Amino acid sequence: MNNTKQVLVKRPKGLPTADCWELQTEAIPSLEEGQMLIEQAYISLDPAMRGWMNDTRSYIPPVALGEVMRAGSVGKVIAAKGKTPFQEGDHVTGWGGVQTHVVTDGQGFFPIRPEWADLPHFIGSLGMPGMTAYFGILQEGQIQEGDTVLVSGAAGAVGSVVGQIAKIKGCTVIGIAGGAKKCDYLIHELGFDAAIDYKNENLKTSIKKHCPKGIDVYFDNVGGDTLDAALIFLRKKARVIICGAISQYNATDLQGPKNYLSLLVNRASMKGMVVLDYAAQYSQAMQDIAQWMASGQLKSKVDIYEGIEAFYPTFLRLFNGDKLGKLVLKI
User: Fold this and answer.
1) First-to-last CA distance in the chain?
2) CA angle centred on 210, ends 208 and 216, rounded to 5°
3) What is the pLDDT along the chain (331 residues), one digit of tens a residue?
4) Opening angle at CA 164, ends 331 and 159, nearest 5
5) 43: helix, coil or strand?
6) Domain-located, residue 288
7) Which of 38, 161, 173, 298 could be bridged to 292 by S-S, CB 3.0 to 4.6 A?
């Protein structure tokens, strides 16, 4: 049996090119005592992958050249030797990387309950994006009923869940997304109160229109001009959650916020959050999100493409906007 994998062989400058990775196939070694073989079913594609390719200091070490490209995954244990944390037939999720199979002792993998949802959701709303949204808006954002919440990247895997949780908690929610299709999705399928099409609307004018009393919580996945526009409209004691900055990931000249003095004037806070800090609480979050999904209060959309050979064109969809919901690669 062989393992096929996407290996990082070159560090990108700006938007990654196809030659940053090399598709390799190798024989799967025999299992040693305490090891398991996981057959991967789905790979998660996330904007954070771009940052992991840089050889710079971050919240997690960069992917080394010659290593399998880091990615979240969900799969099934098809073999185990000796005493292992999971048994043959168990479904698990973890950092399996962009490859068809993983030999592991189980560290970094967690059991999942397929009866809760289809497998791709465990790297979407029931996986890292969902955990990010849950802890980001509830614990970092400290939302309260009646708050006005603005979310950028609102049609994406994280933003769509952030907005829905905020609605469940009684907030007024405005999403920022690119294009009429995504904005229609936010309002008519996810129940957002309003949507701003940043491609065809003036951000400042539209934020002022939809947030006439200002913003209590701004959940940022985009950075750049979008963050700068949102800062203008903060209310007193507002909370700005920096989850991501997809507009800056491929930039060679990073753009920081100019309107940061709004934080001072409004006694507001701006804080970065990384979901790994909440790993000990994932099970409770998964249970809550699964219940919301079962009751119809939270909808989860996955955008699935097929084949490990299709990794690069699928990866590009993270940055060209050609996706809706959670981007997933079926292996």
Assistant:
1) 15
2) 80
3) 999 999 999 999 999 999 999 999 999 999 999 999 999 999 999 999 999 999 987 788 999 999 999 999 999 999 999 999 999 999 999 999 999 999 999 998 999 999 999 999 999 999 999 999 999 999 999 999 999 999 999 999 999 999 999 999 999 999 999 999 999 999 999 999 999 999 999 999 999 999 999 999 999 999 999 999 999 999 999 999 999 998 888 877 778 899 999 999 999 999 999 999 998 999 899 999 999 999 999 999 999 999 999 999 999 999 988 888 899 999 9
4) 55
5) strand
6) no
7) 298
Residue 193: which H helix or E strand, with range?
A: none
Domain of 57 in residue numbering reads as: 2-124+300-330
83, part of any domain: yes
Domains identified in the chain, total number: 2
**42, 100, 217, 220, 245 from 264: Cα distances, Å:** 45, 50, 16, 19, 22
CATH number of the CATH domain containing 172: 3.40.50.720
CATH code for the domain of 42:
3.90.180.10
CA distance 278 to 298: 21
